[in-house]
Every structure is written in C-alpha cells, then in structure tokens.
Amino acid sequence: MTGIFSTLGTWNWLIFGFVLMALELLAPGVFLFWLGLAALLVGLLSFAIDPSWQTQLLMFAVFAVAAVPLWRRVARSNSGVSQSNPFLNKRTDALVGRVFTLEKPIIDGSGTVKIDDTIWRVAGPDAPAGSRVRIVQADGASLTVAAA
C-alpha cells in the first residue's frame, strides 16, 4: 500500500485535480470542485518543493478541509445577489401595494387591470372601469384588489 503512495508526484496530483473537476461537470454539487482545487494546489506546490508522500497527503487534507469554509463564504456572498432583488422570479409579489386603474369593471368580484403590457385578472369588490385599485394580495396569476 505504501508503494502506491510513495509514487505520488506532481503530475498525479494535477491529473487527480482535473479529474475531480471534470467529475463535477457530471455530478454538479460544487463539492468535487473544491477537492479538485485542493489536489491542484498540492500538485503546484509539488513543483516548487519536493515533499514526501506523507506531506503531500497532509497538504491535500488541509487544503480540502480549508476549502469547506471558503466554499460556504463564496456561497453566502453569492446568495446576496438574490437578496438585492427579492422579487426575482416572484413578479406578482412585487405588485402588492401598487395602485392601478381598472381596465374592465369588477362585476361579481372579477375584473381586469392592465399592468405594463399585460392584462391581469383581479378579484375584489365591484367597481366601475377606470377606478383606481390597490393590489392587496397576489396568488399565482390572480390578484386581489381593494379600492385605492
């Protein structure tokens, strides 16, 4: 078993790193990428210094363990992008609280309002066309309104 480890060299680590990163493409999850990066770092450091196989394995373990908090930090900073636009993929939620003019009157609790270039179905108390209504709730493609 030590014979396998004693033959570890720079090229082995570089190939191992690229293989792990290629496997990440087949099974995405961002975990294998960081292990591949740790293997590449060991391979690059093996170019500069010629460590023993024990030191190489230790460096790989340290880099792999250090990659976990780094990955969490990167993932957390990327999740801030969605926090800057909380209504991304929730278009109807962004309409709540806004005031619009009825396109067609609300009769028996149903009418329409034009928002930008789209006609939306609205539900609420009866009101004539041209009335101003405030959107109070969004449920899928249906909006609930109240008099503004």
Task: Describe the 3D structure.
- With 148 residues, the protein is α+β, with helices and mostly antiparallel strands.
- 52% of the residues lie in helices and 24% in strands.
- The chain contains five helices and five strands; from the N terminus they run αααααβββββ.
- The chain has helices at residues 2-6, 10-26, 31-48, 53-84, 91-95, and strands at 99-107, 110-115, 118-123, 132-139, 142-147.
- It has a five-stranded mixed barrel with strand order 1-2-3-5-4.
- Strand 1 and strand 2 (110-115) form a beta hairpin.
- The chain is rod-shaped, with a radius of gyration of 29 Å.
- The model has no long low-confidence stretch (mean pLDDT 84).
Architecture blueprint of SSEs:
Elements: H1 2-6, H2 10-26, H3 31-48, H4 53-84, H5 91-95, E1 99-107, E2 110-115, E3 118-123, E4 132-139, E5 142-147
Parallel strand pairs: 3-5
Antiparallel strand pairs: 1-2, 1-4, 2-3, 4-5
Helix pairs in contact: 2-3, 3-4
Describe the structure concisely for a colleague.
Helix content is 52%, strand content 24%. It is of the alpha+beta class and 148 residues long.
